[in-house]
Amino acid sequence: MIDMVGLDTRLAVLEHLHATLGEKFRPCPLLLKYVKAGRLGRKVGRGVYEYPESARR
Fold this sequence. Notes:
mainly alpha; 3 helices; 47% helix; elongated
């Protein structure tokens, strides 16, 4: 599901929740690593999984 929404979008939501609601919502290091590496989900073809060109939408 995170690949469909976008890892960058999920990170932005978690950063907001962390700032407003506390430590329970701190983004995990792996999510930060993936976003920094450009692994943003299906829209770019790489997220948690790799997607062929035909699956990107």
